[in-house]
Amino acid sequence: MKKVLAIPGSLRRGSFNRLLLVEAQRLQPANLSLEIYNGLGSLPLFDQDLEAPASPLPQPPLDFAAQVVAADGVLISTPEYNHSIPGVLKNGIDWLSRTSVGEPLIGKPVAVIGASAGRWGTRLGQTALRQTLLATEAIAMPGPLLFVAEARKQFDEGGRLVDERIVKSLTAVLVAFERWIDTVGPRR
Ligand SMILES: Cc1cc2nc3c(=O)[nH]c(=O)nc-3n(C[C@H](O)[C@H](O)[C@H](O)COP(=O)(O)O)c2cc1C
Questions:
Q1: 143 and 150 in contact (C-beta within 8 Å)?
Q2: Could you read off the pLDDT of 11-43 as tens digits, one per residue?
Q3: Which residues, judged by CB distance below 6 Å to any ligand atom, belong to the binding site of ligand 1?
């Protein structure tokens, strides 16, 4: 069984990106076990002074890093904010990129998906996220890609995806990600 930490890049109640990850849990292949990370909102704003020896590191970033270490892969579902990613997600990744928490993204298989209200379905947001992930030395899966556009129309009242094509695409991402985790292998 491969453990995947699934990170929604939004704090919003009713976030479409969180719903997308809940759907990913429902559709997960037999050998994948997704756990949704709910802690982005409890991470302090990154500040290098918090890493100074005189200031013991706050616990939430340490816990976040430990969850990433324990996972075989990380699946991020990001909204698009102003053609980029939300600050809360960038803040979380900035924490994970630091030696003070062990740089747990180095060599980590990561998959990126996203949902937005607009017509382009987070194309620019996901591109910005991939650029940031490059700096962390995470190993981002190049494809298949999933851009959920006009997200308000894509979920029913129970949070289920209504479009079978999106269900198929999400399933394809998960199946490919299981293979990607094998391809990348554990961190050496
Ligand atoms: C500050 C802000 C900036 C946004 N910028 C964009 C954008 O550049 N492109 C886009 O498609 N949607 C944009 N949106 C709309 C989001 O796609 C929409 O709020 C979406 O529901 C956010 O994801 P969530 O449902 O997971 O919270 C923006 C929303 C906010 C709050």
A1: no
A2: 999 999 999 999 999 999 999 999 999 999 999
A3: 10, 12, 15-17, 79-83, 116-118, 120, 151
